[in-house]
Structure formats: structure tokens, C-alpha cells
Amino acid sequence: MTDVFISYASEDHDRAAKLSSALSALGWSVWFDRRIIAGQAFDQEIERELETAKSVVVLWSKHSLASEWVRNEATVASERGVLVPAIIESVKPPLEIRRKQTAELIGWKGEPSHGGFQALCEGVANTIGAAQRRQPIPRQGWTVRWSHRWRLAAIAAAAIALGLGVYSIGAWRSATPTHRDQSGLPNSSAPSERKGPVGAAAELADLVVGNYSGSVIADSKGSSRSDISVIITKLDGSTVRVTSDYPRLGTADVTLTRVGNQVLNADGDTPFILDLGGAPPTLLFDPHGEVAYRGSKQK
């Protein structure tokens, strides 16, 4: 069962693909590509997805207004109570749709702080239920292409967290009685206080490396695919190389930073989010905002 079904006119495919990547990066599963794999009946596949999707986003433009197919999909979604309309051009949706609050995506280029995109995400979350949302909707967070300001904020947050941790450890040690050896003299090298040999950067890369199994959940130039493997190898203490058996994912070198339980890409235009809070850890990887991959780390 798909979280989001995107209904659109074929002339608006590129904008639908951009929206699909942005929603997929938030952890929602998205169906939008009308190119069905060989052997499947076109109308049956679309009907199945339309009738089982938890929410249906309809992109209204001059082309979709003229499309009987899009109008029919909007009607079905409205009857099911899962319609989330959005306008991508200065047009008026059909009369029966206007009573629904409509998100405005005119001029949206993929930025997460865009008011229309935020309204759309809230509409999707409310439709499928807050409990179904896999990732929090960002207010100034990451998007398909992370901004330079966000990357600096993430690095600053990590540095502050590290500083607080060092301060806390220092305060704890100050309040703890000094260990004494058998001679009764202070021993600052007591086993409980010795530092480990592995630095924070090395630990960060070691947390990420491994084999991942999952699916391409959105592709700007193709359809979703399952059983896709991703391999992450260590280049140095804070850099890894991501490769895959799926050519569209290609190869990418990622410089790592950490915020809370998430390991992120500290630079570049490739979203990389490893959620360490999952069991097993879950990876979201979207090379250059074109191919969205989601997979789990294998033991």
C-alpha cells in the first residue's frame, strides 16, 4: 500500500518527479510513474494503486484540467476522502475540488521551507494519519538538495553537542573521587578513566560501512525497483564511498557528520541519511536528487 499517489498530466512529468523525490526523501513511499513494467495492464495497475493509496496528491495545471484521466482520479480520491490537491500553475481546480484546501506549488523548486510544500506535507500527513509519517516534516531541514546554510547548521549542532558532552564528562570527573593504586597514591591512569584508542571520526565511518538491501522508491527517469543492493566502504575516518549494483545509483563519495541518531552528508548535493535509531539502521540515499533509495543495513 503506497503512502502517496501523485496524479498529474503527462506534460507535467518533470514537476511530478521533483515532488516524488522530495516526498520520498521524507520517508513516504510514492507512486507516480505511469510507465508500467511489461506484462502488467496499464489501467489495472493504476486503478489498484489509486484505490489503495493512503493519500492522492493531484497536481492541477492547464494540462491536467484538460485531462479526463486526472479529473477521474481526483474524483475517486475525493470519494475515498484521501484527496490532497495542489496547483502548479495559476489555474482554478474543478468546482467540486475547490472546497478542499489546496496547496500552492507555483514556482516551487524543491526547497523545504516553501510554504506551499509545507502545506502539502501537512495535508498528506493529516490524510494518512500522523502515526504513518516515517520522518518528521522539515521546517528548515534537509530537502532533495540541501542548502549550504543547513549544512553549516548541522555541523554547528554536532559541534555544540560534542562540546556539551565533553563538558559533562569533565564535570563528572571533577566530582568523582580520584582513583588510588595499592600504594595509596593518586593514579590518573586508572582503567575506568583511560581513553579509548578510537577517535570520534573513525567511529562515525565505522558506523556507516556495510551492505544495505532495499528499493529504489523514486526515479526521475524511470520507475521504482526492488531488491537493490548498496555497499558502503570506508575511505577514511569521516568519508565513505557508496556503490550499488543498480547503475542509476552510480558511485558517490560522502563526507559524514552526525546529528543525534542520524549520520548525514556534510557536503555536496547528494542527500544521505542513515538513521541509527532503527533496528536495523535505515538508509535514505538520493544521488543528486534524481534517484531515491531506501534500504536497511544487513548483519
* Total strand segments: 13
Fraction in helix = 25-40%
Q: Walk across the major sheet and give the strand order.
A: 6-7-8-9-10-11-12-13
Radius of gyration: 24 Å
Described by its quaternary structure, the protein is single chain
Mean pLDDT: 75
Q: Tell me the name of the CATH class of the largest domain.
A: Alpha Beta
**CATH topology (level 3) name of the largest domain:** Rossmann fold
Shape: elongated
Q: How many domain units? A: 3
Low-confidence stretches: 130-202
Element string (H = helix, E = strand)? EHEHEHHEEHHHEEEEEEEE
How would you portray this structure in words?
Helices cover 31% and strands 25% of the residues. The chain has three domains: 4-132, Rossmann fold; 148-199; 203-297. With 299 residues, it is an alpha/beta fold. It has helices at 13-25, 42-52, 62-65, 68-80, 115-128, 148-175, 200-208; strands at 4-7, 30-31, 55-60, 83-87, 103-104, 210-219, 225-236, 239-244, 252-259, 262-265, 272-275, 282-285, 291-297. The strands form two sheets. Strands 6-7-8-9-10-11-12-13 form an eight-stranded antiparallel beta barrel. Strands 2-1-3-4-5 form a five-stranded parallel beta sheet. The relative contact order is 0.12. The chain is built from seven helices and 13 strands.
